[in-house]
Amino acid sequence: MDKMDKFKDFIYNVSDVLVTILIILIAALLISWRVSAIVHYPDKVHSEQGNYSSVVQDDEDEDKDDRENQDNDKKSGKDSDDNDNDKDTDDSDDKTDTTAKSYSITVTDNESAGEIAQNLVDIGIISDKKEFLDAVKIAGAETKLKSGTFDFPPDCTAEQIVALMTK
Predict the structure, then answer these.
(1) What is the model's pLDDT at position 64?
(2) What integer pLDDT is reported at residue 24 of this predicted model?
(3) Is 161 exposed, middle or buried, given 0-12, 13-18 or 19+ CB atoms closer than 10 A?
(4) What pLDDT does 83 receive?
(5) Mean pLDDT by groups of 10 residues along the chain of 167 residues
(6) Helices 129-139 & 2-75, crossing angle to 10 degrees?
(7) Do 161 and 152 touch, CB atoms closer than 8 A?
(8) Counts of helices then strands in the chain (DSSP H, E)
(9) pTM to 2 decimals?
(10) Contact call for residues 114 and 129 (beta carbons, < 8 A)
(11) Those residues with Cβ within 8 angstroms of residue 144's Cβ, 6 or more apart along the chain or in another chain
């Protein structure tokens, strides 16, 4: 029986080793499969942000052109209000009420987040369009911005503006 016990021990030891190797191989395959997905995730996010960035970049290019036109008009002595009349949009709804210390803006149904951001910069409630566009993106409110007339206190942040415009 001594030989039989040694044979059983050998089989048990080999089977334990084989099972351990099998478990390690399965774990390695699962990890490598998921690591691949994790490694490619930043590329996926970057490509999605690339689409958003291109929209923001287009809006920034338009803003740069508008600022250059306004600077050229100021240098040539042309009133900036004359330049506003050349636009197809009606900015007369955007008002700054200095006596009540609040800002008012009217948003139409078809205005984009970039156009709203530019209007907010124009009335002086925010200093940079990107500030508002980032707040919209963080809030996931790209399609939730409502139209209408909104009043904002002068110390309102971009996040608060987005919150008020999505109520």
Answers:
(1) 58
(2) 96
(3) buried
(4) 44
(5) 84 89 93 77 63 45 60 55 45 46 86 90 90 91 88 89 89
(6) 150
(7) yes
(8) 5, 3
(9) 0.41
(10) yes
(11) 166
CB 118 within 8 A of CB 124: no
- Angle of helix 129-139 relative to helix 158-165, nearest 10 degrees, comes to 50
pLDDT score at 11: 87
Residue position matching structure tokens 């800002």: 103
Backbone dihedral region for residue 96 (phi beyond 0: left; psi -120 to 50: alpha; all else: beta): beta
Q: What is the distance between the alpha carbons of residues 29 and 88, in angstroms, rounded to a whole number?
A: 60
Look-up: residue for tokens 């008020």? Answer: 164
Angstrom distance (rounded) from CA 94 to CA 111: 13
CA-CA distance, 102 to 96, in Å (whole number)? 7
Report helix, strand and coil shares of the chain as percent, to nearest 5: 70, 10, 25
Q: Quick one: tokens of 62? A: 């338009």
